[in-house]
Queue: 3 jobs
Job 1
Amino acid sequence: MMECELLENCGFFKKYAAVNEKACANYRETYCEGKGPVRKECRRKQYRDAHSAPPPDDMLPNGKMLFS
Ligand code: SF4
């Protein structure tokens, strides 16, 4: 299955991929690479669809905000 079309430009990974490689790899596998039904539940994607704008970089794929 194809990965999320937004992955290359996803602000969350751009900001945090180097900071916390392991956590980001887990999020990517779970949400972005289509391994399991949870992919459809990416809150970052849902936010973008609802607001026609990208979510804050600090929003996790599960919808929680870092540093809030
Ligand atoms: S976090 Fe969500 S929006 Fe970003 S690349 Fe992964 S599935 Fe797509």
Job 2
Amino acid sequence: MESKVVELRCGSVNYFGIGAIEHLPEIMERYKKMGISRVAIITGRSSYRKSGVWEKIKPLLEALNIEYAHYDGIKANPTVEQLDDAVKMVKEIQPQAVVGIGGGSPLDSSKAVAVLLRHPDRTARDLYRKRFTPLEALPVVAVNLTHGTGSEVDRYAVATIPEDKDKSGIGFDCIYPQYAIDDPTFTLTLSLRKVLYTSLDTLNHAIEAATTTLASAYTVMLAREVVELVARWLPVAVDDLSNLEARYWLLYASVLGGIAIDCAVVHLTHPMEHTLSAVRPELAHGLGLSILLPSVIKTIYPAKGDVLSQILKPIVPKLKGTPKEAKDAAKAVEEWIFSLGVKEKLHDVGFSEEDIPELVKYLKKAQEGGGSLSLSPVPVDDELLRQIYYESLSPIK
Ligand SMILES: [Fe+2]
């Protein structure tokens, strides 16, 4: 028996399943009874409308006589400026709660806005540079529209500080969404690329949370389930974007992945990707992760072969867990990702060998004062980071 105290977290009330959106009226009625009559709504440009969620929410707020201010300017990889703009726009009505609608970026942003509305003398830069520790935020309702981030059930939020090339993460108990809605019906409007990238994000959450120094039997169990579900249902969803059963299970996997990182965080792939997409904001998070994952597996396999051989079985059945399998495991995972149609490596998304020293420099700066690299199952130094970026420039040889 290992003598280690682990965290078993599940901080949000999550309504999950087809028709989960029908719980929104009772949530808003509850808020109304509690005296909440003004809410901020945080979204991206179009998915809140395209998904059909807006048609449900708007009449509901009007019927309950709940005033709202809607900021719809959150882009992928949102910056601290966007968050300050959002706060500036919605604070005019003095919101008492925040409703985020969308994927990871709008949901993360709604959490940050909920903190900043409670701390009017602070900016988003203060929050993401960790210049204060919030103990309070407005209540957040997260209406999730993708099957990737798990943001609707965790205590994390990320935003980019452009001048630092830092996509920085915060994690506070006060930003768990009070209520989360996961209705697979609303994920059907995702494009093929988004289906792939969000599901591969989930896969990375599971693999990292099962292998950090905070991992437990619980996160390994979650990872086993997540990998199995993604391996089974992602190819189905790719073949048929209208398959609701596939979306149901991919969404379920993303909730489990969110709970897993909430308990045991991440280690190498996520912080290394955050630097990539801070440098090139057009790079999708899930794509960046998928590019790095094979080399990260190769790097940590000698230390974590026992866990990786178990959880990767649905993708690479023959693994036994011995260190000499590291390269084969990495190549097999890479080939599986390629087989889904995600064939890019760092060279294909605009990075070259010359960029690597700078990437390592930004990454180290972002991790100053504590970061998830410290949870890596293998010791991390500059050479290891350089090696992973280098190996990810092109397919593993
Ligand atoms: Fe992620």
Job 3
Amino acid sequence: MPVLEVQNLKMYYEIPFRGYVRAVDDISFTLDKGESLGIVGESGCGKSSLAITLMNLLPKNAKVFGGKVLLNGKNIFEMPDEELRREVRWKQISMIFQGAMNALHPIIKVGDQIVEAITLHEDVSKEEAWKRAEDLLEMVGIDRARAHHYPFEFSGGMRQRAMIAMALALNPDVLLADEPTTALDVIVQAQILKLIKDLQKKFGIALVLISHDVSVIAEMSDKVAVMYAGMFQEYGSAEDVFLNPMHPYTKGLLAGVPSVKGKPRRLKSIPGAPPNLLNPPKGCRFHPRCPFAIDKCREELPPLVEVEPGHFVRCHRAEELKGVPWDVGE
Ligand SMILES: Nc1ncnc2c1ncn2[C@@H]1O[C@H](COP(=O)(O)OP(=O)(O)OP(=O)(O)O)[C@@H](O)[C@H]1O
Ligand code: SF4
Ligand SMILES: [Mg+2]
């Protein structure tokens, strides 16, 4: 049984008098113990919205319109709030939030903040929780004596490490990491990604890593989902998606990534911007930006089809466009 199984998940935000923002639309995937899924897509495509839906940690105007999130076989939308709070969040599924390194309370010692996370969920003495907090800091490469320090005495990279320690404090089966390195310089970014990968392997955690950065996703993921306008447009093994991209949006994203191998090439971009999800385009949601669009694309929403074993693509022309490169944009 997969640790996490998501079936046809739909979550929309309600905007009074204007309608619904279709941020998460018909998303499905599975994740086994120790496996990693990278979700990549431009800003506003619904990546963070998907993550908070997986935690069932939704703002008041968000509504789940369908689908299931099965965590260790149990649908989180059918669990009482108390069970979610005490037994599920942080213990079974945990999250490093986007911008997390600024989320530590500024005037509480880092050790005390980790202690609070532990004692809220487990019946342990303050002394035991404090020792665990120190152990966790050590595990993420921070000297245990630093538990007595305040967040402002930490560098950005150390604060992010502390947030990782907190997310792992209750040994979760699934870790969601939403842009965990975006605000960091490249050297610290590489260290933090290595740390996440090492801990994931060590504890057999199922990892969902979210980033707009294709190179980060390529480096870290077993499986990859390319998300656009609230939907997975392509989903499969990292090898399939990156070496044999079949959706024009994936091709466009990859055309903008410099490669150290092969002969130098001019980088391309995808002209335009993702749509407003209050009123997404009819048909294929990518058609206004797609150089390969035909009439059918403007009328009919393509289904997500298994084009090759384990490789899913949402494009009417996926087969015809095999091997055709992205060649527009500056
Ligand atoms: N509470 C909310 N109410 C209404 N709309 C929202 C809310 N939160 C997010 N949205 C909208 O949902 C869409 C998806 O946003 P989301 O934050 O999930 O994107 P993202 O892919 O994580 O982007 P980024 O890469 O910038 O973090 C956007 O159009 C956003 O404006
Ligand atoms: S369905 Fe049409 S518009 Fe959409 S990605 Fe495929 S070719 Fe482009
Ligand atoms: Mg986000």
